[in-house]
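Please complete every field before forwarding. Incomplete forms are returned to the sender.

SECTION A: IDENTIFIERS
Entry label: holo-386
Bound molecule: flavin-adenine dinucleotide
Molecule representation: SMILES string

SECTION B: INPUTS
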Amino acid sequence: MTDLPLTRADALARLAAFVPVAGQDYGRLRNLDLGPGRHRHVSRLSAALRRRLITEDEVIAAVLAHHPYPAAEKFISEVFWRTYWKGWLESRPGLWPDYLRAVAQAGARLETDQDLRLRHARACAGQTGIDCFDAWVQELDSTGYLHNWARMQLASIWIFTLGLPWELGAAFTLARFVDADPASNTLSWRWVAGLHTAGKAYLSDAGRIAAMTGGRFAPKGLATRAVIGPETLTVPRPMPPRAPVRPAPTAPSLLLLTPEDLSPETVPALQDLPIRAMACLDGESAADRIALQDALARAQARWPEARCKGALAPADLAQAAQDGAQIVTAFAPVGPAADRLTALPRGLPLTEYLRDWDAQVWPQCQKGFFALKQHIPAILAKRGLA
Ligand SMILES: Cc1cc2nc3c(=O)[nH]c(=O)nc-3n(C[C@H](O)[C@H](O)[C@H](O)COP(=O)(O)OP(=O)(O)OC[C@H]3O[C@@H](n4cnc5c(N)ncnc54)[C@H](O)[C@@H]3O)c2cc1C
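SECTION C: PREDICTED COMPLEX
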């Protein structure tokens, strides 16, 4: 099993251990990919942040307590990248079903196109003969994690050297990353493919790969041109993020935990609600189940009177809600968790809370990251973080 943090206690311990190097050291060394078991220049907090076992506010506050703002700027802006992708996708929700359709279409092509099927199978098995690519696939399979810089190279080689559809690559990593995140994953793949910023794709370079991996690799035959397409750059116009359906403040409530937010005891909007029961949905991944169990145990400690119903099938959730409770859950951004909630039986009294981090930052994520970046000092000040 992974050594990535999947409980809140592990996430807090990982944060405490990482904080001393989150300042200028991180700014200088974060792009070095030293290989499995040696990723000491990055936090490896993403599996916990993605599930909000620990929040962006908590991570940034801990880092700023050791490294006042300019020193920690690089690390903090990376944390904002996560929010940026979420907010950007939230205002273009149609890109997610478009992506799912494209994965299905590319999957169907694998059935009929033998050459594509063979190249795809070799890539997925890490048997392309490109040393770094094959090693990263092995690392991903055995640890569920890749360094950010390695993710960029893997995606670039997949698209431009191996000539495989980016959507199949995104599906490949989404199924394997322990931090799998629909926004960061899909949109990073689009960014590498040249579909996020006009005229800009990310092309790997053998010399840079050798330098950034401490000479571990000397890849041969990498593409020297990034040919964008056949899809052309069509970025949908942003629309306002969907508004949450808020819970009634005094109604008996069933707290439904999803992998989108697993530290409910820290959510101000939940503190005064009469929470009578708590549950999650069944059928989650093994990593999500560990994190959900940890969250349910903490929620039970916070609301000891509430009945813990464990993992419920959708039909059982409907039954639980017939006990008169409104269901309260974290706002699920575009992605699989939102799809699961949408597929629940109609008419469930489902209500949502939106973290004020998202409410504050998402509206600033409509354009490029650098438009958001300008606002980071003001956002931190407004939140009392700097
Ligand atoms: C092709 C590709 C696919 C990706 N897929 C995912 C994914 O499915 N899930 C996921 O969580 N991240 C994804 N990322 C973003 C990034 O690679 C990971 O968040 C990061 O590598 C996690 O490692 P860390 O926690 O050690 O990061 P650190 O370097 O320690 O960064 C601290 C935190 O900042 C955030 N962060 C850092 N870099 C990025 C980034 N480029 N984009 C968004 N957030 C970032 C993460 O929350 C991370 O935990 C992807 C990047 C690429 C290029």
